[in-house]
């Protein structure tokens, strides 16, 4: 959420000469996205996002992400593909980092989506899934079900410092979710992190789906489960908004469809999605000094979602 | 250099309705300026910078800064005044902070200015000084000569942890500079921080002078001395670039004029300017943990400038 690598105006001007992108008019470092350095760049022709990939995005994964974005953009979906230079190259190097010049998309991320906005965003997810039916590249989900037990193990007894007895409860939840995890559901490339932050909107219209850096090959309906947990609760996970929840499911089902098997699996998929965000937040929480300038996100906000889904999931998605 | 206060899209949309500024299209938190929160905001009409003032800018000083910017903008200088709302109000409150919607200016800050760029920036300073001749508001210089001895005192013996013997050398330098400090030179509102970061350019043309949050009433030629130290050395203060130094002096003198008395005072003004940045950097250095996420700026980079001016100042500005 900061600019880690400084790019001088001189270096940026030279970089832009590789592209048919016009000449540099303005560049502002922006505080956005995962741990990358981002600049909002304006040229005599257009606006772009310049992204320099820092440690958290592996350079080896960039071809997958860029192919995914190209695939979706080619089918008319509002995603930000990388701009090709005159030689057709998308992934460059700048200031010693992998770097892409990326299409700028208008729109803002809403903090408190309305049901109409949630429905539009879920429709956009359905359209993405439809467009990805013939996308063949694969990327394993580094934060998928196989990773949950080891991550819980690595958090270890420190979990009890977050809440008393949490370690034992987490172990039970991991066991329960993995035991019930569905086999045989359709898999696909998915976004895997479609929080309201990652959807740009103007009014009720989706103008951009961004931040594909967790995209991977996974059970397709898991993407919807992640979105449900991210949109249909308040930040602390204390209040479920049934209207938003329904809008997410209906928006997706209307745009792409949801099979009976997928619908039946949603309770455990939603528990799994909550577990994934709980575990990564718990790990970050336990490994970030309390006085660091990075905001630690409360892991219990996702533990509460997990408990909610465990208690009400079957009724919720019936 | 970060976004300290989050402004939701919903709150920003509501805020914009106070102005004739169009509707919200995009908003990106930008990593810019002193310790304020800044957003680059695009509407259906135009682009703006939204600034929320954090602790480092006193709300009581905002009317001075905004009147100064209005004064300069009214005379056609490329500065970013605050936009007035429909009631004529410039200074608002948003998310509990004083906030201004500010004109967006094109251009980029160069990291390694050429002599032509330095000359153009110094001309812009001269034009500002000319435009400020009839500006009557006053603001004391909180980081002016009266503050240097107390600040050196507060740094105390810790200065010796930056370099052996530094504390004694600093005391001598403060005494020497204050003793030689000129009386009777013309005073004016000045920028007081005209580093290359604070000048936006397109090629050799100045498109913006920004970040007036150190502006104050001070010996006018002190502004030029600050600029000379900021532009005519490499970052570490180890290499003086005579060509840039000459361009700064000539650019300013050509645009506004430099009296014999001012020219004669430049060596001590330049030492004083170097001392001011040395002292504030030393204070920040000694009071910022080495592992903090804020970049500490090496105070010795300004100590070297001070030594350079002490040794060569008389010859330099003759």
From TrEMBL, chains A, B:
Query: Aminoglycoside phosphotransferase domain spans which residues?
Result: 27-252
Is Transferase given among the entry's keywords? yes
Q: Which domain of life is it from?
A: Bacteria
Q: Which InterPro entries match?
A: Aminoglycoside_PTrfase, Homoserine_kinase_II, Kinase-like_dom_sf, Pseudomonas-type_ThrB
Entry's Pfam families?
APH
Tell me its family: Belongs to the pseudomonas-type ThrB family.
Protein known as? Homoserine kinase
Instruction: Say which species the protein is native to.
Output: Sphingomonas canadensis
């Amino acid at each position: 959420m900061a600019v880690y690598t400084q790019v001088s105006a001189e270096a940026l001007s030279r970089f832009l000469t590789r592209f048919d992108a016009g000449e540099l008019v303005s560049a502002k470092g922006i505080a956005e996205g995962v741990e990358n350095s981002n600049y909002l760049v304006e040229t005599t022709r257009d606006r772009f996002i310049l992204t320099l990939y820092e440690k958290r995005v592996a350079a080896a994964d960039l071809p997958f992400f860029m192919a995914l974005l190209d695939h979706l953009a080619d089918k008319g979906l509002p995603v930000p593909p990388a701009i090709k230079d005159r030689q057709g190259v998308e992934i460059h190097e700048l200031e010693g980092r992998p770097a892409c010049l990326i299409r700028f998309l208008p729109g803002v991320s809403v903090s408190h989506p309305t049901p109409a906005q949630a429905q539009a965003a879920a429709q956009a997810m359905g359209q993405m899934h439809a467009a990805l039916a013939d996308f063949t590249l694969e990327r394993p989900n580094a934060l998928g079900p196989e990773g949950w037990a080891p991550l819980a193990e690595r958090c270890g007894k420190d979990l009890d410092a977050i809440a008393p007895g949490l370690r034992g409860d987490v172990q039970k939840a991991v066991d329960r979710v993995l035991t019930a995890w569905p086999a045989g559901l359709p898999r696909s490339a998915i976004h895997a992190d479609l929080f309201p932050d990652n959807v740009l909107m103007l009014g009720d219209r989706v103008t951009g789906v961004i931040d594909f850096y967790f995209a991977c090959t996974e059970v397709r309906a898991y993407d919807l489960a992640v979105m449900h947990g991210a949109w249909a609760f308040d930040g602390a996970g204390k209040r479920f908004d049934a209207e938003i929840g329904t809008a997410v499911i209906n928006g997706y089902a209307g745009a792409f469809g949801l099979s009976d098997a997928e619908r039946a699996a949603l309770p455990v998929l939603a528990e799994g999605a909550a577990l994934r965000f709980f575990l990564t937040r718990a790990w970050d929480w336990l490994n970030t000094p309390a006085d660091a300038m990075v905001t630690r996100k409360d892991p219990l906000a996702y533990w509460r979602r997990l408990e909610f889904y465990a208690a009400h999931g079957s009724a919720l998605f019936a």
